Amino acid sequence: MRILVSVSPGEVRTALLRGDRLDEAWIERPARPDGVGDLHRARVTALAPAMAGAFLVLTGGETGFLPESEASATRQPIARSVQEGLVLPVRVTRAPQGGKGARLTARLTPAEQARAAAAPPGNAPLLLARGPDAALRLARAHPAAELVTDGAGLAARLRGTYSPRPVFDEAVEAEFDALASPEVPLPGGGRILIHPTPALTALDVDAGSAAGARDPEAQRRVNEAAVAEAARQIRLRQLAGPILLDLAGMTAKRRAALAEPLAQALAPDRLARLLGLGPLGLFEILRQRIHPPLHEVLAGPLTPGLAALRQAVREAASRPSRRLALVAAPAVLAALETFPGALGEASEAIGQLLQLRPDPARPWSHWTIEEAPHGG
Known about the structure:
single chain; alpha+beta; 6-stranded mixed beta sheet; 5-stranded mixed beta sheet; nuclease
């Protein structure tokens, strides 16, 4: 088992590999962390007995929700645990979602309580400590795994092995690129189409050529492969909430026979639970949300912009004397210019300022790194 951590301007990508197989994938933007695990001093702004909880204001004015089950060890009604205006230390247990604030807990470890007690005095909301990033979480969960990173500072912090070359090879890069696509090819033919919506995520299995094959077992083999791959994609993409899996064809009885293989495929994922086969013939899965799903992280023009910076750094390393320009859609360049630190990190890694050239005719994904003329 290996943990590979790729550090690039504005972004850290972390892969957990079992052998050569990608088992977990994380994409983080340190300038805008998801906040999970952060320790705050927060102030109660409103009790919500009908919702069995209270709203608290965090550092920067963000709002979080404290369920009454997390307000105290005795789990008493929220009005007996906290009062409006009360200041108390809390930890973020779930990232914000769908316009709702972060989920909080006041049930802290002794170490967290000690850190909160050592904070500067005052009643203003205060960020006391950042939560662990993906690399640290994986290192703690798999202490025997080798950790290799191309970020010197991160290698020192995590006591990992530093690599002067990019730690992601072409295969890992391709797998991370594929996580941005809604289509997952299946071995032997067929595919899974992934459709996230605000309410749920639908996974649709397309049998492809097997749908019309004369071999009656061809469709079964596609669905068996789809069951295993669906469980893997749910974990890799951090899909959360209600998830519906629609297999290709098959009678209800034959679909039901795949319930046990699906449950076994989901078993290593402690956040996922198979609810069963619903009346419409769809497998119903519920997965707890903690971190944002990858499709939320990757949405918008910032993602192609950060990919372009990563490529610019690589091209500069291969030919240090070149002056480089990023040609991209205005929205991509605007996203980079408003994202803290990314352009500065890229220019530092390149050794000179990266020129930005807007091209309104380009879609977001069609950026290029070009050689800039001297004096341009």
